[in-house]
C-alpha cells in the first residue's frame, strides 16, 4: 500500500473515533510498526496545518485525535447555537490544580490541603470530565483516588502532565501568605 492510502486510513480512524486513539492501536490497524505509523501521522498533521483545512490532529500523551481548529469556533456556534460551556469557579480551579499536581489523590487529601470539604467540587469536575476515578487506595475504608483526564489535557492545551508549569518554593510561600491575609480579612468582616 502506498503512503497516501495509510494517511487516508489514519484520517478515517481519527475522524470516526471522535476521541484520542493510542499510537499502538493505529499501528496495529495499519499493520505497521509504531515508528512508521508516527511518521504517517506527523505527515498528516503537517497537511492539516494548511489554512484551507478546518481540522487539525493533536497529540495527547501518546495518543492522537482529530479536532476542529479553534479559529473555526465562531462558525460552529452559528450552527450549534451555543455549546454548553462549563464554568470553572475559583473553587473548582483550585481543586482541579490540586488534583493535577498531586494525582492520584483522595478527597481527604484534597480537603487537608484546601481546609474545606471538596465533595461538590470533585463531583463537578468528574461531571465536566476533567477528573476521573483512578481506583481505590489500599488503606482503611479504601477511599477513591482521583486524577485528571484526557479532556483536562485538551482543555488546557497540554500534551501531558509534564508540561504543567512548576511552582518554585518562593511562589508557594507567597501564595500561602496571600491566603493567610485573605483569611484574616474575611474573619474581620
Automatic annotation (TrEMBL):
Record keywords, A-Z: Cell cycle, Cell division, Chromosome partition, Cytoplasm
Localization per Swiss-Prot or TrEMBL: Cytoplasm
TM spans (from-to): none
GO cellular component, one term: cytoplasm
Pfam families cross-referenced by the UniProt entry: SMC_ScpB
GO BP terms, alphabetized: cell division; chromosome separation; DNA replication
Lineage: superkingdom: Bacteria
Matches recorded under InterPro entries: ScpB_csome_segregation, WH-like_DNA-bd_sf, WH_DNA-bd_sf
The protein's assembly and partners: Homodimer. Homodimerization may be required to stabilize the binding of ScpA to the Smc head domains. Component of a cohesin-like complex composed of ScpA, ScpB and the Smc homodimer, in which ScpA and ScpB bind to the head domain of Smc. The presence of the three proteins is required for the association of the complex with DNA.
Role, per record: Participates in chromosomal partition during cell division. May act via the formation of a condensin-like complex containing Smc and ScpA that pull DNA away from mid-cell into both cell halves.
NCBIfam families named in the record: SMC-Scp complex subunit ScpB
Family designation: Belongs to the ScpB family.
Protein known as: Segregation and condensation protein B
Species classification: Bacteria, Bacillati, Bacillota, Clostridia, Lachnospirales
Amino acid at each position: 500500500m502506498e503512503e497516501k492510502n495509510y494517511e487516508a486510513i489514519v484520517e478515517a480512524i481519527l475522524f470516526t473515533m471522535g476521541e484520542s486513539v493510542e499510537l499502538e492501536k493505529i499501528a496495529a490497524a495499519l499493520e505497521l510498526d509504531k515508528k512508521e505509523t508516527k511518521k504517517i501521522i506527523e505527515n498528516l498533521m503537517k497537511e492539516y496545518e494548511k489554512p484551507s483545512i478546518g481540522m487539525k490532529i493533536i497529540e495527547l500523551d501518546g495518543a492522537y485525535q482529530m479536532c476542529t481548529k479553534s479559529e473555526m469556533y465562531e462558525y460552529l456556534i452559528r450552527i450549534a447555537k451555543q455549546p454548553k460551556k462549563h464554568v470553572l469557579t475559583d473553587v473548582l480551579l483550585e481543586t482541579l490544580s490540586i488534583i493535577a499536581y498531586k494525582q492520584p489523590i483522595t478527597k481527604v487529601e484534597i480537603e487537608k490541603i484546601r481546609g474545606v470539604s471538596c465533595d461538590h467540587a470533585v463531583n463537578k469536575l468528574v461531571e465536566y470530565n476533567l477528573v476521573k476515578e483512578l481506583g481505590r487506595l489500599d488503606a482503611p475504608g479504601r477511599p477513591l483516588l482521583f486524577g485528571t483526564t484526557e479532556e483536562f489535557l485538551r482543555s488546557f492545551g497540554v500534551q501531558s502532565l509534564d508540561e504543567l508549569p512548576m511552582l518554585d518554593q518562593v511562589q508557594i510561600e507567597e501564595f500561602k501568605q496571600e491566603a493567610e491575609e485573605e483569611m484574616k480579612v474575611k474573619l474581620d468582616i
